[in-house]
């Protein structure tokens, strides 16, 4: 299994149709919660004061992470920073 931290920043158009926006956000929530329930999307944290989150993924490989991220309905409106993670030798939980 591979672990990643992914920072996602969202930039929706200011003039987006409210109905289209509501639909997009509902689909985004459903997609992300599906992966959270399956265990691959381990946690999601809001970045205070920003339309952004920091999420932790534990996935089979890079391809699975790619599939999850590209499947996000908000993907076209996101900027992402993906950081591969490794266990730290000082981690008492490792």
TrEMBL record:
Homodecamer. This is Muconolactone Delta-isomerase. Pathway: Aromatic compound metabolism; beta-ketoadipate pathway; 5-oxo-4,5-dihydro-2-furylacetate from catechol: step 3/3. It comes from Pseudonocardia alni subsp. carboxydivorans. It holds the Pfam family MIase. InterPro entries: Dimeric_a/b-barrel, MLI_dom, Muconolactone_d_Isoase. It catalyses: (S)-muconolactone = (4,5-dihydro-5-oxofuran-2-yl)-acetate. Transmembrane segments: none annotated. Belongs to the muconolactone Delta-isomerase family. Keywords: Aromatic hydrocarbons catabolism, Isomerase. Its EC number is 5.3.3.4. It comes from the Bacteria. Residues 4-91 form the Muconolactone isomerase domain.
């Amino acid at each position: 299994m591979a672990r990643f931290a992914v920072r996602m920043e969202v930039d929706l158009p200011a003039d987006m149709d409210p109905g289209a926006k509501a639909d997009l956000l509902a689909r985004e929530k459903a997609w992300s919660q599906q992966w959270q329930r399956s265990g691959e999307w381990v946690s999601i944290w809001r970045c205070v004061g920003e339309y952004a989150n920091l999420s932790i993924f534990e996935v089979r490989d890079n391809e699975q992470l790619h599939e999850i991220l590209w499947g996000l309905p908000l993907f076209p409106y996101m900027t992402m920073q993906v950081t591969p993670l490794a266990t730290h030798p000082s981690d008492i939980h490792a």
